[in-house]
Specification:
The complex is a heterodimer of chains A (about 400) and B (about 300).
Chain A lengths: L2 H4 L5 H26 L3 H4 L9 E7 L2 E10 L4 E6 L8 E5 H6 L4 E7 L4 E5 L12 E4 L5 E4 L5 H9 L8 H4 L5 H31 L6 H10 L5 H15 L6 H4 L7 H11 L4 H9 L4 H12 L1 H17 L2 H6 L8 H12 L4 H21 L1 H14 L1
Antiparallel strand pairs in A: 1-2, 1-8, 2-6, 3-4, 3-5, 6-7
Chain B lengths: L2 H13 L1 H21 L2 E2 L7 E2 L3 H7 L2 H32 L6 H9 L6 H11 L6 H12 L14 H11 L2 H12 L3 H9 L4 H29 L3 H11 L16 H10 L4 H33 L1
Antiparallel strand pairs in B: 1-2
C-alpha cells in the first residue's frame, strides 16, 4: 500500500513466525482433545505422548490379533507353561533369576530377551468372561497402523448417563440417556434465546424510542445493575426459586430470560437509537400504534442486533455451569455441562479417552454455530466491546 | 402531568413492564435481601435471625476468608495483566497486513467460546503431572538445566499459575474487541505520525495506545470483575486433580480456594447463608471500589494523552 505500511514495526518473517507459533499453542489443546478421544485408554496414557491413535497387532497363540502394549520387560527370562498342580495349563513369565532358583513342573514355551513387550489380546465384543490371552514378543513382531476409535464416542456418551456397560438391573436404574442431557441443554438454550430476543427488544424499545418521565433515571439504574456480581444475588435468588417450587427443574435457567437483562437492553437500545426517527414519526402520523411501529418497523430493521443477542445468550446458556449446579438436583434434569462434570467427578477422571470424547461433543455445537454465524459473532463481540 | 405526558408514561412503563418485574424479582429483591441476610444468622431452612455485625466481625478472624481473598487477588493479579498483554499483542499482530487474517482470528478466538466445563476437562488432562501433554513437552527442556516440571494442579505452588495459563487460552474475546478498536483508529493519525518521523514502537506507544486506551480500560475492568469471581474451572479442576473432596475444598492445600468457591460452599454446603451474604457484600464493595479506582486512574491517564 503506502510507504507507511512498509515501515510496519514488525519484519514480515518475524510477524508470521510469531503468529504461527501462537496458532500452534492455541490449536494444540484442541488437537490433543480429539486425538485422545480416538485412542484406547492405555494409549492415551502412554509416554512419550503419541499424536497418532493406533492399532497394534501381534501373533498370540498362532493367531494374529489386536493387542495392547502393556509394558516393556527389563530382564531376560522364559515364558513357561505349568504342567502340574492347580495352575496346570497356566502360562507365566519367569525371570532368569527365578528359573535358576528352582525347577518346577513346567514346560518352556519360549525364551524372552530384555526389551521384549508384554502384550495382551484386546477383547472384541461378545467374548464374555474368557480371560484375554497374552504373550511376550520382540518389539519388531508388533505391527502398528493408524486407527481412529470412533466407537469411543457412543461409549463415552452412554457412560455420561451412568451406563458402564453392565447389565446389572441396579446399575440400569437411574441411568439417563445422553439425549436427555442434550434435550435439557437445548431446552434451556432455545427457550432462553426466545425470551432474550423478545423481552429485551420490547424493553429496549421503551428506553430508546419513547419519551417518558423517569426514563433516563430508570435506564441509569438498569446500567448500574450490571455491576452487581452474581454471588450477591445467589442466596436470595435460590430462596426465590425455592419459593416458586422451581428447584430441581429447568425453569430457573430459562424463565428469567423472558424478563430482560441489563446488558441486552443496553445493547439493543444502542442499536434502536441508530434507526432514523423519521420512520417512526411518519408511521405515527399515519395513526400507527407504538406497538405496531415496534413490531413492523423497528424490529425488522434490527435483525443484526437480535442475532447478536440470540447468539450471545445461546453461548452463555450452553456454557453455564454454576446455575445448573445450584438449581438442578436430579440427574434427569442435568444439562450437558453438568452431566460432564458429574461423570468426571464420579469416575475420578482417569478415563481420559471418554472424558475427551464427551468434552468434544460438548464443544462441537458451539464450534459449528460459530462457523455458520462467524460474521455476526465477531461483529457482535466487537460492538459490545467498543460501545461499552 | 398533561394527558400527553401521561399517555407517554403509560407507554413507557408498558414497554418496560417485563423488565420492571425482572429487575424487581431477579435483581432488586436479591440485592436488598442479601444485605439483610448479611446481618442475620440464616440457613434457608429457618427464618433469618438478626445478629447485627456478627458475620462481618467473624469474617475478620476467618483465616479461610483471608486465604480465599489472597488466592483470588493473586489469580486476578496474574490473569488480568497477562490476558490483556497477550490479547492486545495478538490483536496488534493481526492488525498488520497479514495473509489469512480471518483464519488466525478464528484460531485465537475459538477457545474463548468453549464451554468452561469442557475446557476444564481438557486442561486437567494437559496439566496432568504424569501423562500430561504440557509436561511431556517441558521435560526435555527442563532436563537440560536439571529441573523437572511441576505437577501443576496437584502442586499448591503451581495450581494457580496453571489456572492462569488456562485463562490465557481463552483470551480471544478480548482480542476481537481490541482488533475492532485498532481498526477504528483513523489512518490519518498514522500518516501524520509518519510525517513526524514516528515509526514502530514509538508509533504504537504514542498513537495506537492512546487511541485505544478506552477499549483497554473497558476490557481490564470486565476481565477484573470476571477474575475476582473465578469459580467453575477451579471448582472442577481442584477436585479432579486431587482425587477427593467436592470441588469446594480448594485443593491442593487450599491453594485454589477462591473467594467465590468459599462463598458457594459456605452458602450451599454448610448452609451458613447469612455469613455467605456478608462475604458477597464484601466482594461487591471490593469490585465497586476497584471499578471506581480504575475509572479514576484511567480518566487521569486519558486526560494526560489529550
Amino acid at each position: 500500500m503506502s510507504p507507511l505500511r512498509r515501515r510496519s514495526p514488525f519484519p514480515r518473517i518475524l510477524l508470521y513466525a510469531v503468529l504461527l507459533a501462537a496458532s500452534v499453542a492455541f490449536v494444540a489443546p484442541f488437537a490433543w482433545m480429539i486425538v485422545t478421544s480416538l485412542k484406547p485408554v492405555e494409549q492415551a496414557m502412554s509416554l512419550p505422548p503419541d499424536w497418532i491413535p493406533r492399532e497394534y497387532d501381534a501373533v498370540i497363540a498362532g493367531r494374529r490379533v489386536e493387542v495392547t502394549k502393556d509394558y516393556e520387560l527389563r530382564q531376560a527370562g522364559e515364558v513357561v507353561e505349568m504342567t502340574a498342580g492347580e495352575d496346570a495349563g497356566r502360562r507365566v513369565f519367569l525371570s532368569a533369576h527365578q528359573l535358576a532358583a528352582g525347577a518346577g513342573p513346567w514346560r518352556v514355551v519360549h525364551s524372552v530377551a530384555p526389551g521384549w513387550w508384554h502384550v495382551t489380546e484386546r477383547l472384541g465384543e461378545g467374548r464374555g468372561a474368557e480371560p484375554p490371552r497374552w504373550d511376550i514378543v520382540p518389539p519388531e513382531a508388533i505391527t502398528s497402523r493408524v486407527r481412529l476409535r470412533w466407537v469411543n464416542y457412543p461409549d463415552a456418551l452412554a457412560r455420561l448417563g451412568g451406563d458402564t456397560g453392565g447389565d446389572d438391573p441396579a446399575a440400569r436404574l437411574g441411568r439417563v440417556s445422553f439425549w436427555v442431557f442434550l434435550g435439557n441443554s437445548l431446552t434451556v438454550c432455545l427457550l432462553g434465546v426466545a425470551g432474550t430476543v423478545l423481552s429485551n427488544a420490547i424493553v429496549a424499545y421503551g428506553f430508546a424510542r419513547l419519551k417518558w418521565r423517569g426514563r433516563d433515571a430508570f435506564f441509569a439504574v438498569t446500567l448500574a445493575t450490571m455491576m452487581v456480581p452474581f454471588p450477591v444475588l445467589m442466596v436470595p435468588l435460590y430462596g426465590v426459586f425455592r419459593g416458586f417450587g422451581w428447584i430441581g427443574t429447568l425453569l430457573p435457567l430459562w424463565v428469567p430470560a423472558f424478563f430482560g437483562s441489563a446488558f441486552n437492553i443496553f445493547l439493543m437500545r444502542q442499536f434502536f437509537r441508530t434507526i432514523p426517527e423519521e420512520l417512526s414519526e411518519a408511521a405515527r402520523i399515519d395513526g400507527c400504534s407504538e406497538w405496531r411501529i415496534f413490531w413492523r418497523i423497528v424490529l425488522p430493521l434490527s435483525k443484526p442486533v437480535l442475532a447478536t443477542a440470540a447468539l450471545l445468550h445461546f453461548l452463555y446458556a450452553w456454557n453455564d455451569f454454576m446455575a445448573p449446579l445450584l438449581y438442578l438436583t436430579r440427574k434427569s434434569t442435568y444439562t450437558l455441562s453438568l452431566a460432564l462434570q458429574s461423570y468426571e467427578s464420579q469416575t475420578g477422571g482417569v478415563q481420559w479417552h471418554y472424558l475427551m470424547a464427551a468434552s468434544a461433543v460438548t464443544v462441537l455445537p458451539v464450534v459449528v454455530l460459530f462457523f455458520f454465524t462467524q460474521k455476526v459473532f465477531i461483529q457482535g463481540i466487537a460492538t459490545t466491546g467498543s460501545k461499552g | 402531568m398533561t394527558p400527553r405526558e401521561r399517555k407517554g408514561l403509560f407507554a413507557g412503563l408498558g414497554f418496560t413492564s417485563l423488565w420492571i418485574i425482572g429487575l424487581a424479582v431477579f435483581t432488586g429483591y436479591p440485592v436488598v435481601a442479601s444485605l439483610y441476610f448479611s446481618f442475620c444468622d440464616y440457613s434457608i431452612l429457618k427464618a433469618p435471625v438478626w445478629i447485627g455485625l456478627e458475620n462481618y466481625r467473624h469474617l475478620v478472624h476467618d483465616e479461610l476468608f483471608w486465604k480465599s481473598l489472597r488466592n483470588t487477588l493473586f489469580y486476578a493479579g496474574l490473569a488480568v495483566p497477562l490476558g490483556t498483554v497477550v490479547s492486545l499483542a495478538l490483536a496488534v499482530l493481526l492488525n498488520q497486513e497479514v495473509r489469512g487474517r480471518t483464519l488466525f482470528r478464528t484460531i485465537f478466538y475459538l477457545p474463548s467460546i468453549v464451554p468452561v466445563v469442557a475446557s476444564a476437562m481438557l486442561w486437567l488432562w494437559i496439566f496432568n503431572g504424569e501423562y500430561g501433554l504440557l509436561n511431556a513437552a517441558l521435560k526435555p527442556f527442563l532436563a537440560v538445566v536439571g529441573l523437572t516440571p511441576p505437577a501443576w494442579l496437584a502442586d499448591p505452588n503451581w495450581a494457580k499459575p496453571a489456572l492462569v495459563i488456562m485463562s490465557l487460552w481463552g483470551t480471544g474475546n478480548a482480542m476481537v474487541i481490541f482488533l475492532a478498536g485498532l481498526q477504528n483508529v483513523p489512518k490519518e493519525l498514522y500518516e501524520a505520525a509518519a510525517i513526524d518521523g514516528a515509526t514502530g514502537w514509538r508509533r504504537f506507544w504514542h498513537v495506537t495506545l492512546p487511541m485505544i486506551a478506552p477499549v483497554i480500560y473497558f476490557n481490564v475492568i470486565i476481565s477484573l470483575i470476571g477474575a475476582l469471581q473465578v469459580f467453575t474451572q477451579a471448582f472442577i479442576m481442584s477436585e479432579a486433580a486431587n482425587g477427593n473432596g467436592n470441588g469446594s475444598d480448594g485443593n491442593p492445600a487450599r491453594s485454589t480456594l477462591f473467594y467465590t468457591i468459599y462463598l458457594f460452599s459456605t452458602a450451599f454446603y454448610d448452609l451458613r447463608m447469612g455469613y455467605a451474604s456478608a462475604m458477597a457484600y464484601v466482594l461487591f464493595v471490593v469490585i465497586a471500589v476497584l471499578t471506581w479506582l480504575a475509572t479514576r486512574l484511567s480518566r487521569e491517564r486519558l486526560a494526560q494523552f489529550e
